[in-house]
Amino acid sequence: MLVATLSDREWWPVPNRNPLTRKLWNFLPLSEPDRTALESLASKEECFASHVDIVAEGSVPRSVFVLLEGMAIRYRNLSDGTRQVITFLIPGDVCDLHVFLLKTMDHSIGTLTPVRIAPVSRDGMMDLFTCHPRVSAALWWSSLQEEAMLRERIVALGRRDARGRIAYLLCELFWRHRAVGLTKGRSFSLPLTQTELGDALGLSAVHVNRILQDFRKHGLIVMERRKLELVSLPGLQKIADFNETYLHFGGAPKELTDYFERLESNR
Amino acid sequence: MLVATLSDREWWPVPNRNPLTRKLWNFLPLSEPDRTALESLASKEECFASHVDIVAEGSVPRSVFVLLEGMAIRYRNLSDGTRQVITFLIPGDVCDLHVFLLKTMDHSIGTLTPVRIAPVSRDGMMDLFTCHPRVSAALWWSSLQEEAMLRERIVALGRRDARGRIAYLLCELFWRHRAVGLTKGRSFSLPLTQTELGDALGLSAVHVNRILQDFRKHGLIVMERRKLELVSLPGLQKIADFNETYLHFGGAPKELTDYFERLESNR
DNA sequence: CGGGAGGTTGAGCATGTTCAAAGGATGTGG
DNA sequence: CCACATCCTTTGAACATGCTCAACCTCCCG
Predict the structure, then answer these.
(1) Acetylation: is it a keyword of this entry (chains A, B) (predicted)?
(2) Which domains does chain B carry?
(3) A199 to chain B: which residues are within 8 Å by CB?
């Protein structure tokens, strides 16, 4: 079934300019004005070097931003010197949609590679919410997806063994990259060290290493030069007891698309 | 410092009728009309027995609801027969604020005790969002808090040992109960079995048992008849490396309260 | 080339699991 | 009001998964 999905239906012909547009399209098709509005958010750009904090724990939340290129993490440092990676951020991810409601950040956001982001002003955001209901629905969907990913991580950490955790994470990252058009066949760029994987999964780097070796030996994956190929996605998904439902790529419920169509024909 | 907080400042004199009002008040004081509007949501009520599903994984999301009384969990069943408890729901918790954007539930919600909920119609929700900006801000805050709790659980599962995890969970539950006025001194009602604690923390019931015994032996907690007393909150917080910042009980940022005051004086 | 970060290896060890059985508590029906 | 069933807690002992530590290797990149 999965293999069929991958080969049968080629990806929608959405231009690749903006990964956020690409991602939201998975949920809801956007009109031309919607798309223009969304993409004009990314008019300004900022760059960060590799392994640098974009947002620091304890700081006052800054503006919303969209990750355009590169990879980043949300993480927490613990008092014993270890750290926990909470989330991986990939292109198209929106950070902290409504974070102006909070006084301080309870975690940091740091880069893993050089990163390009588009800061979004609060006014820009407000405009989107008031004038572009499809876009705002899609943005809320995206934040629900993020929350679902947090829940899934909890399940992985609580109930899966080391092999299951690693397999799960590789699958999730694959599907997410695919959703923004950043996969080529079964491969995508994954610039993570084994330590970083371990920090995300509650495993030691040594153990991550051994299990990745095992996956390679069994022909499940190929990793070279920061590229990952999932030779057998079904195999990995089986190891992880992975079910991509939680990513909610199935599109918007009919109710909602109907609603928007009525809304738009009434204009 | 913590002890001081607990003893110095007695809790706001908010009537206890509705735990949701109580909780939101921690973030933002509400006007009388705001409060009335919020509490009129709970006009209808539904009851559920103990150990019953309110919402099942795979089902179509039903309406939003507020938990009024009792305790429930979000959880996932895995294919190997185990389950992971993702979140504990206590009175005042709002379920699935914007879940109408999704096609299917990716987890279940089940009761741990008999439970009373107030289903909220979508119109009721919409009314709140359009006519009561303070309430909607507070509801969004509450959903941010939930997300922060998910992140904290990830940190606990990824980086804390069994003692740390259990201590962390007890502290979190204490603070949350306190925020809705359901603590008495250092005690609150906690109708959880050790198996349920284990399912939330990725530990076996046996091990949970041994650690709870250890906590009791060291005079950190007293548990009897489903009541938990945190004899030494500081002690537990130290074991867990717990910092309640992530619960964001500090109130709304000044920017926001200013904004609302301007808004309201302009009327 | 040389330095440094990341990857690989082995061996001993620790934390927490599993399994099985027994001891309370609670609640229900006779 | 007792007897019984059930669920929860407690205990012990063997076991397993994954950690730590320390050393070595390899590939980049300057």
Answers:
(1) no
(2) 19-257 (2.60.120.10)
(3) 158
